[in-house]
């Protein structure tokens, strides 16, 4: 997978691969939401979460791999309510 999503027809395979991985991450999250044996919250003190989750908007773009990692990490620390609105 390249570092950017191409905006031309030749980039379709890269875009498809990236979006498929995003969907996989989201489906794993939905599955975890419905697992009654999983924790409702992976608790960490706010200061610790600030070190784990870099929520700053960077001056330069991130790699596609880093975006996938950030998606997974962010969802990992969400409250699992088991409900979707």
TrEMBL record:
The keyword Lyase applies. This is Glutamate decarboxylase. GO terms for cellular component: cytoplasm. Keywords: Decarboxylase, Lyase. GO terms for molecular function: glutamate decarboxylase activity. GO terms for biological process: gamma-aminobutyric acid biosynthetic process.
